[in-house]
Amino acid sequence: MADNQQAVSVTRDLFNEVMVPNYNPAQMIPVKGEGSKVWDQDDKEYIDFAGGIAVNCLGHCHPAMVSALQEQSQKLWHLSNVFTNEPAIRLAKKLTDATFADRVYFANSGAEANEAALKLARRWALEEHNQDKQQIIAFSKGFHGRTFFTVTVGGQPAYSEGFGPKPGAVEHVPYNDIDALKALISDKTCAVMMEPLQGEGGVVTPDAEFVKAVRELCDENNALLIFDEVQTGFGRTGSLYAYQQLGVTPDILTSAKSLGGGFPIGAMLTTEAIAAHLKPGTHGSTYGGNPLGCAVSEAVLDVVNTDEVLNGVKQREQWLKDQLSAIGEKYGVFKEVRGKGCLIGAELSEKFEGRARDFLLAGQEHGVMVLIAGANVIRFTPSLIIPEADIKEGLQRFEKAVAQVAG
């Protein structure tokens, strides 16, 4: 195996030769990570504010995760759901103990967790009400995954168009616009799906009154409220899940990204009564709930769901916002710095409108990894335990990138 690996010269050009061109990754290739730092093939160091798109909640190669993976890898990797396994049962128990939920369904990703949530909502409406109750309402600029169902429910047409007829009975209203939702929702609505803070759509925070009103409208119309917490969940906003800070409880919640800290896993959480509608044979996942993924996720949960880490997230929010605001004022590049916990968005000022990717690329040149959320927002989703020294160093590098772009 080692000889075969050495025989292939792994370069960025080789990516273009062998990969489907749906991604356009950075020119450098990361090869090693530790904590909040990453090194590429040339041993250049980067501060990681991207976190694998809000996935690496404990940074790279956290000892608790490495230990859990190594230990489980010598016991059981995969069984299929013809059998259950101890890590899956333990993880499900810890998730239900820590949330509103009674039942858990495991999948491989956020899109799969959302697919399960949407199918469950439709099945619940059919069995509890009638076949006309099938409308799903979601929000413009929302993002719920890339399967055909989830990308249709997501409110970004650029991701769903060009693939033929879409699943029906899916409609969208603007985020934070309760009057628009009030005008559309009815007894034909089976579910309203929303992010409790929009991530891909530009790091948009909801009004507290809006979230409560959505819950009330769902109750009035016998519709389920689905919270997509794929990006906001597992400590990202300073509580285990964002709903716990909003005073609103969903009927179904989806989780992924930080749930595995970098190992692929997704979960759908719901109540016993709603879960009863996914009877044997109605839905499934070959790898969902595999022992390896669940063992790693359990280790992540044990670290994240502590006062020390969750309170530390709120502290990191302040460090990031204060320093980014100072950079924005100095160079006139940001209209607003917003977000919650370790999910921060810096919206560009009019002068730099549409140039978020320029800042991302300049950041890479100066040794810092950031993300974008649309063409106008630079997104920061670092590890929940990133040291203050790494935040300072990373933002010093980012300021050099800003100075370069700002000219």
TrEMBL record:
Principal location listed in the UniProt entry: cytoplasm
What is the native source organism of this protein? Answer: Idiomarina seosinensis
Q: Which cofactor does it need?
A: pyridoxal 5'-phosphate
- The source's superkingdom equals Bacteria
SUPFAM superfamilies under this entry?
PLP-dependent transferases (SSF53383)
Q: What is this protein called?
A: Acetylornithine aminotransferase
Can you quote a single GO CC term?
cytoplasm
Q: What else is known?
A: May also have succinyldiaminopimelate aminotransferase activity, thus carrying out the corresponding step in lysine biosynthesis.
- Give me any GO biological process, just one: L-arginine biosynthetic process
What Pfam families does the database record attribute to this sequence? Answer: Aminotran_3
First-level EC class: transferase
Alphabetic keyword roster = Amino-acid biosynthesis, Aminotransferase, Arginine biosynthesis, Cytoplasm, Pyridoxal phosphate, Transferase
**What is the annotated localization of this protein?**
Cytoplasm
UniProt-listed NCBIfam families? arg_catab_astC, argD, PRK01278.1, PRK05093.1, PRK12381.1
The cross-references to PANTHER family, in alphabetical order and at most eight, read:
AMINOTRANSFERASE CLASS III (PTHR11986), SUCCINYLORNITHINE TRANSAMINASE (PTHR11986:SF113)
Q: Where are the transmembrane segments?
A: none
Q: Which reaction does it catalyse?
A: N(2)-acetyl-L-ornithine + 2-oxoglutarate = N-acetyl-L-glutamate 5-semialdehyde + L-glutamate
GO MF annotation list: identical protein binding; N2-acetyl-L-ornithine:2-oxoglutarate 5-aminotransferase activity; pyridoxal phosphate binding
Give the residues the record marks as binding pyridoxal 5'-phosphate.
110-111, 143, 228-231, 286
The entry assigns this protein to a family as follows:
Belongs to the class-III pyridoxal-phosphate-dependent aminotransferase family. ArgD subfamily.
State which Enzyme Commission number(s) the record gives.
Answer: 2.6.1.11
Q: Which pathway does the database say it acts in? A: Amino-acid biosynthesis; L-arginine biosynthesis; N(2)-acetyl-L-ornithine from L-glutamate: step 4/4
Subunit-structure text: Homodimer.
Protein residues bound to N(2)-acetyl-L-ornithine: 146, 285
